[in-house]
Amino acid sequence: GRTHHLSMNQYHRAFASSCVHKAQASARPVQRKRMTYAMKCLRPQIRSNADQFIIGVEDLVHETAILASLDHPNIIKLHGRAISDSFRLSDGYFILLDRLQDTLEDRIIHWRISAAMGERNDESQFAAACSIADAMSYLHSK
Predict the structure, then answer these.
(1) How far is CA 90 from the centre of its chain?
(2) Average pLDDT, whole number, for the chain?
């Protein structure tokens, strides 16, 4: 494959801001055996730009390899991927992941709203903190 020499800012902009659909757009539900998955794929605009396409696919392939090596209840699971020996610009490399019902950011917003209304969320916040700490401990052991 080609080697790309980009600064971290160029790399981050190319991947994070334009290669992958935003969370709602990319989390297209795929039904299979009563399970709902999120399909993470490259934007159509990226697939028509050879350099951005290669960077995006390389990132997704790298993410696939990392997620395939992990097995922890608090880390998103990889359930599938596109299989192809070669990638053409019309191909759409994708990965299937657990579909999250909410994110940590969503929960924090909910906790703030609840706190403003006088509700306490100590148990929920403590459980989330423990889940995150457990996942981080697992990752550091790898």
Answers:
(1) 22
(2) 76
